Amino acid sequence: MSIIKSAFRVLRFGSAKNQLFSLESKTCRAFSVCNKLRQDASDANASKINFYVDENKEKGYAILKLNKGPVNSLNLEFLTELNIQLEKFEESKEIKGVILTSSIPNIFSAGLDIMEMYQIKQDRGSQFWTALQETWIKLYGSNKIYIAAINGHSPAGGCLLSISCDYRIMSKGPYKIGLNETLLGIKAPFWFRDTMINTIGYRETEKALQLGKLYSSEEALAVNLVDELADSKDLITKAEEQMSKWCAIPTVARELTKSSMRRDTLSKLIAQREADTQSFIEFTQRDSIQKSLRMYLESLKKPKKSSA
Ligand SMILES: CCCCC/C=C/C(=O)SCCNC(=O)CCNC(=O)[C@H](O)C(C)(C)COP(=O)(O)OP(=O)(O)OC[C@H]1O[C@@H](n2cnc3c(N)ncnc32)[C@H](O)[C@@H]1OP(=O)(O)O
After folding, report:
1. What's a single GO CC term here (predicted)?
2. 293: Cβ below 6 Å to ligand 1?
């Protein structure tokens, strides 16, 4: 129990630290025409800066930088804020595409916040899972062009965000990406699996999911989990180059093609969202799953080996 309390404390402290980091880094950004949009002040969490949006209406795309320290873990509040922003993009007439990245060095996203699954309660768990489904439906089902600029580690839910985009560029470096759920003692949901199959194929997914494989950036490129590698300093430039190429394609034809490719996968979840939520709650409430999550949390908090 004390581990959990201290995790909450550290996560809160991490957010504050990261907020400072973001305020500093804001001045360094070279994006020429940009509007900084903050989330609605009505939300209790709105005072935290959990992501930034740089919009370049002239060029027709935005850069969304995840900024929830320490590791961009996805909890209910963060997902809710993201969903509001994704909806804004979807409704925008000026924005054709979005580059999804992170302002936290070496971390794209650590995936779902494990604290949302540990000692899970029915109400919060349902809201959390519904918000996650919504994020995936909005991202994977978007008419807009999404390019993931993966600047660091991207396990599990972080990988899901990446593979829900249309194109992925990953920083060269000692970073890992993949659906590693089995290593936490849990099974990747069918829609995580299907998105992975659509990206890297059935056989590679079958191996990767059973093994909980976390790919290095080079391995990820070799199996098409990412489309391109870039030096960290060039990551956003490369993503912008790619975005310009995608933006030049006739919009309606591209949108229709995208939706025809993704419709069946999306429909499977949309047809059974409530059942999927209930199954998530029942599964995570099992004693064996709670035990696995506790052990995984403890392993995360062990002193890190220098070679890890
Ligand atoms: C039916 C159910 C299906 C559910 C599907 C599940 C999907 C998921 O996404 S589950 C989450 C899977 N995520 C992971 O396995 C990643 C775990 N994290 C890491 O491997 C590392 O943290 C890292 C590589 C992402 C970053 O490493 P590093 O820079 O060394 O940072 P730390 O490990 O020291 O982490 C800092 C701090 O953050 C805590 N933390 C890390 N990940 C999570 C997380 N996903 N949720 C909650 N908290 C997380 C970590 O414990 C550290 O806390 P303190 O030790 O208290 O500082």
Report:
1. mitochondrial matrix
2. no
